[in-house]
Amino acid sequence: MLFIKSLDSKLSIAFMQSTSMDPFIVLVICLSCLILLFLWKQSYVKGKLPPGPTPLPIFGNVLQINTKDISKSLSKLAKDYGPVFTVYFGMKPTVVLHGYEAVKEALTGQNEEFSGRGSMPVFDKVSQGLGIVFSNGERWKQTQRFSLTVLRNMGMGKNTIEDRIQEEALCLVEALRKTNASPCNPTFILGCAPCNVICSIIFQNRFDYTDQNFLNLLKLLNEAVSIMSSLWVQICNAFPALMEYFPGSHNKLSKNFTYTKSYLSEKIKEHQESLDINNPRDFIDCFLIKMEQDKHNLQSEFTTENLINAVFDLFSAGTETTSTTLRYGLLLLIKHPEVTAKIQEEIDRVIGRHRSPCMQDRSHMPYMDAVVHKIQRYIDLIPTNLPHAVTHDIKFRNYLIPKGTTILTSLTSVLHDEKEFPNPKVFDPGHFLDESGNFKKSDYFMAFSAGKRICVGESLARMELFLFLTTILQKFTLKSVVDPKDIDTTPVVNGFASVPPSYQLCFVPV
């Protein structure tokens, strides 16, 4: 407190003398005092938080972190500061958990305390704390619990959803046949399949693969993932004031999201006009019925605004994460034709060329199961996970972390753990096979995160990846347009998500 009084006194003197002093000198004095105040406040707070690199005033540790590959920078810092450390993105402290033990201890051992959603200003501006992914507190609990119940009742993880995926897999095969074995970029074809599955769940509708409105939505989602992983958006998340005063790709991102939410809002209006409370058709109907049941509850979280955001979360996450994984997976398979050959041998032996693959086949196809897991582990789709936040003041490993502090859990450090997965940067399905060639589970497989904030669509995504990839490899030979040795699988951006490079391949019918 003596420091603050002294600082206030110095500021007062500086302003009193400003009339007889050069304005530049006044500015320097004021900025110096503000920096001293920041350093004092930072050292006071830092005394409670885990250790970490010394932050600069205003900028924090941003200049010490490669915002194009945050995960790699955090791994380097972990070598100096251990598995639990603090970094500052701007003036905001963020506690980083690095390595399997720390991540597991937080997300599963203290899952309630670490179940908050950390701030991501670029997303917060759009979501306004609504929906499933970026909500918090009671709103999140109610919305997530309701969404999971509806999805399970509609068959997620059961035969009814499996039937939809199998039907969509056949549509995907037909679309791939129409490429006539010519070189093609598979981005949007692969995006159509998972998008149609989630659309059938949300609003009981699927689209033709040539539908321009449908392709436009996919284009916006695909573009959004690249923008979200860009350097500029990482900077905006650290310095949110920039979004108000500077042009940039964050405005494009906002427009993309607004357009998509507008489209979904129209779907909701159509459902309101044709709703039969005794015969719910899909997720939107179930939510509208819940809204009607809770209409007299002023504290209800079941509102039109929350419905729009919940549907947007399911639509975007249910489409883009799976389609990106499929796209990255095929790139890895043409890079490693020996892996593809072993998969197809297993398909011939277990399924044959005519029967549609089903989920029961997975237990008899350990190599294919291992490859699907390997793709997800290798590509490390969301390297630092979505940010968590502690729900109240907690003690974690002898550190005191204040309520609301943002938590980054390095999924890279878990998925690429060298002890669990020797040579983690090598695409080796053997990481998930035992000595007898049977599938081997790993607790380190956290591609969908862990704990209370684990991906609500995990079981759906697992089914889609297995069935879509198996069906493609059952019906086609993948032919690269370049020598496999020359294929670069390095992500083009690695911020929010790992985005694979653009490529072409030929789908040659078997």
Automatic annotation (TrEMBL):
UniProt-listed Enzyme Commission number(s): 1.14.14.1
- Lipid bilayer topology: Peripheral membrane protein
This entry carries the following GO cellular component terms, namely:
endoplasmic reticulum membrane
Specify the superkingdom: Eukaryota
UniProt keyword list:
Endoplasmic reticulum, Heme, Iron, Membrane, Metal-binding, Microsome, Monooxygenase, Oxidoreductase, Transmembrane, Transmembrane helix
User: Where is it mostly found?
Assistant: endoplasmic reticulum
Q: What is this protein called?
A: unspecific monooxygenase
